[in-house]
Design brief:
The structure holds two protein chains of two kinds. Chain A is mostly helical. Chain A is about 75% helix and about 0% strand. Chain A has 17 helices and two strands. A two-stranded antiparallel ribbon of chain A has the order 1-2. In chain A, a hairpin with a 6-residue loop joins strand 1 and strand 2. In chain A, helix 2 crosses helix 7, helix 3 runs antiparallel to helix 4 and helix 6 crosses helix 16. Chain A is globular. By secondary structure, chain B is mainly alpha-helical. Chain B folds into two domains: about 60 residues; about 80 residues. Classes of the chains: A mainly alpha, B mainly alpha. Chains A and B meet through helix 6, strand 2, helix 7, helix 14 and helix 15 of A and helix 2, helix 3, helix 4, helix 5 and helix 6 of B.
Chain lengths: ~475, ~170
Amino acid sequence: MMAPLFSSKLLIVLLFGTLFGLILGVLPGLGPTTGGALILPFTMTLDPLSAIVLLTSIYCAGTYGGAITAVLINTPGTPAAAATCLDGYPLAQKGEAGRALGMATVSSTAGGIFSVIVLVFFAPVLAKLAYEFGQPEYFALAIFGLTMLASIGEGSPIKNLIAGAFGILISTIGKDFMTSIDRFTYGINELSVGIGFIPVVVGLFAISEMLTQSTLLNQVFKRVALKAVKLPSLDDYKKTWKTILRSSGIGSFIGVLPAEGGTVASLIGYSEAKRFSKEPEEFGKGSIEGIAGAEAANNAATGGAMVPTLALGIPGSATTAVILTGLIIHGVRPGPDLFREQPDFLYGIFGAMLIANVLFFIFGFFGAKLFARITLVPNKILWPMIFAVSVCGTYSLSQSIIDVWIMLFFGVLGFFMRRFGFSVVPVIIGLILGELVEGTLRQSLVIFDGNWLMFLTRPIALTFFILSFIALAFPLLRSKKQKK
Amino acid sequence: MNNVQNKKRANKSLPFFFKDEFKVFFVIIFFSTILLISTFTFDKVPPILNRGIQPATFPKGLLVLIMFLTTIIYYLSFKNPWKKEKKLPKPFFLTIISFILFVVISKTLDFFLAISVLSIFVSYNWGEKRVFYLLLVGIIFPLVVFIFFEMILGLRFPPGIITNLYYY
């Protein structure tokens, strides 16, 4: 599995990706999704394996990096680290920041490695299953993905559905890929090729975050002092090993489902850790189990989210949507054929994720103090710099100034979406799944001679439709139960 | 006395069209309607070339779905009103103005100049008054990024009054 990685170039890429991912994770507002999107143009100078190794190592390390700021300044560096704040910061306030970060580092690494094992064993099985899928099944699967995203994603399910539908709508801009008829182009030539993925991602994540930061200029962070990261004691291990294992399983499972990956996984991992704990009253006051539960789950979601991305070409999270774009840009077509035709390439990715987990453990353990200092860079200096990189990065992919304006438009739109409770992640997933949804629907209708009811005669498709229905009904039933 | 009057005024419920719920509902429905109307102008494919459905059908379906779901969230907001958002501060509007400036300058003068002006404008309005740091974010850093992209990716930035000095 590791053989493809035994080259100095790949190891340097892996090292750089892990470091860069950690820095992105530490900085509140940035994260592996934005970072991955910004670095995508640079991957054009690399071979496909190096490019994807770079993106996956950013993903793994960025997810962990959020824990450092969550523990030390009570602000999650990434949304996936939100649950880590609940116990990480209180424990740090008690003078045990080193112990809190030590547990976050160990459980993140354990969760990450667990999920890579899941990826290695589960992705090929899913890929084999995918051979049974025709156009109707892929259509039903994409619909299932979007409904799951709406159902278990953050915030209101209906708002998530609107955002997902909006993402698919964006994908219809440009020439219709089946008939070459212009749609929503309004005579603008540049729109004929459609709206690029990168301007939308950078706009929705980086630029909208810049606008959010402009409303938080008076916010003061109180940083807790950190002497050094400590390895958890034997007592801590005894207390948390079951939690780590459970959360790793939860995280991997949630990761496989197309949703907000780590964010949802960490919240579920945390609440399950509390439910099974012998000391649930300690949660929220600095429980070491709380940190382990949240951190193992969010890092376990990384490997899980790669499963549908590689096996089916359907992203499991916003960051894997960026990785999927990276794969497509480099001419790699994810799906079952990838497992048969390019096993070395896949082993390279699996191995890279495994090593990235070990690397961020080392960097986190010895360098957390240094990484935490990055948060001292004031926003008034940091964000104009991020803007410059965002603009050049967006421009560079198609060398089109229109892309930069689209990025700004989506930045403003993303800000208002978030302000009114619409998550931006479904837009990204909708955009990347849009062509698949429309293409498979239209091709299915050709197969079925325009008879929509024929979808119900395909057992796999029908199963996905039933699951989609359950996914949509679930939040409704949950809110009724809560009212009772 | 004034404070009491202000509080009374604040307690009065706002007319429905000032509420966030209605504003969001109105904006989504308004733009969806415009887009829906525009789908009727899409060219039609002759039946012999048509694969499954007409190119306009799928976007039409999506827009109707968006409008339907938006109506549901507006209806639900009567039962559970949204939490009131804080007023946006001055730096937010200045940042938006800087985006407009960026678009105007990058279109008419120079791409690099637009980045520099935006960076200095944003940094200054966000509270940075030290000249060195303004130069750092406005000139030194964009220059480093520009050269980096130019050399590593072989990127050619759009022509403009400053970029031309570099290229010629």
